[in-house]
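Protein in question filed below.

…
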Amino acid sequence: MGTIAIIAAVILGISFMTFVAFFGRLPALRNTPISFLHRLIWIHLPNGVLTVDRTLTNGRLTTSLTRLGRHLWYDQHPTILIFFFLLLSVGEYLYLPVAWPHFSFTHKFFGTIAILCPYIFLYLSAFTDPGVINAKTHVREMARYPYDFTLFHPGTSCETCRLLKPARSKHCSICKKCVGRMDHHCIFINNCVGANNQRWFILLLLSTAILTLYGGVLGLVIIRAKIQARFPYWTLMPWWTSTQAWNSGDLDFHRWLLLWSWGLQSGVAMGGVTLLALLTTPLVWGLLGYHLWLVYCGTTTNESMKWQDWQAEMDEGGVYKRRMAADGSREKDLKVEPAWTRWPVEAEQIMVRTEDGKPPRSSHRLPGEGEWEAVWRLKDVENLYDIGFWDNLVDVFLPYFMFKESKGRSPVDEREFGRERGRSRRRSS
């Protein structure tokens, strides 16, 4: 009982800490206990340790730990990728010798597929170019999405890469590169999740979620069969099935837990992996569900934070929008934005924030036409990049799909674009 309790406690603790680390910064969880724990673990506790260390060692310990932590969190290295690979392979090494003889042919067939898929998608996620933007790919990435004049405005340059930033792109401080349709940098794949590898990342989450659920349930069935072979009156959930032993008091909760512990300890390796699979399954499915929700909404992790920043601005007042040319006749500045993109729609609005809380003055020469309208809710703002769940999926899984024809035009005027790129480099120098 003690061994199993320790294993379960460790697995639960790791799963919970991973959940807090992943989800604690999400805008949707602001001002919640999860957000508080995230700040406590990553901000307040380190500050407390720093204060104590300054008193005891004049800060030498925390300086070394900070240097190590900065390398682990902010430099590109395969440590967590290797850990994830070993977690899969060692878990299967401990689980399969005990469980495999109990599998039917059907489970052996589908189990083999379930085991192999995470490795395939892990490789594709980690080693596929996520959509790095450089001099060779810049024109192509500029033609991927139009600017929405809400989250992304033309004319913004990356001071590090010295290139005009395409819509939906972001510079990764870990990879030291700009990435098209940047979602986030994932330490488990040692790579950014961007336009070109997001499909493999989603399939990695899906295959891992299926593997943990499938392996956990099969392990549970095998353990249940072992226990029932010796104690026929034992059931997995007697309080739901209302067995005679449970109703008569012969199988109370303490004895049920004792027999469950006996079943796990009869094959500790497989039992421990089964517990690990069952307890981490909700976390993996939760991550998968979150990313599918982002696809459904036509946004990314990076953009969802930008939307929440807009909501915070709206709460304070001073956010205004007005329509762009309804017929798409807006004259584009080809020095800083593409003449056309593969995207089926163009920006229909521009949204800005003012310092004084009043509508922008006409002298500001902002694009758009008509009167400025105050905005208080995100649902009153059109998301240019949400074109319906099916087309959003097409965009993720076919990243170069042409939603509209180019009609033989170049997306950018290379002469004008080249001059502006040169000016951008000089400004960044």
Notes: Residues 134-180+299-428 form one domain. Strands lie at 132-133, 157-158, 163-164, 170-172, 177-179, 184-186, 191-193, 319-323, 349-353, 373-374. Residues 155 and 336 are 5 Å apart (CA to CA). Residues 198-230 form the longest helix (33 residues).
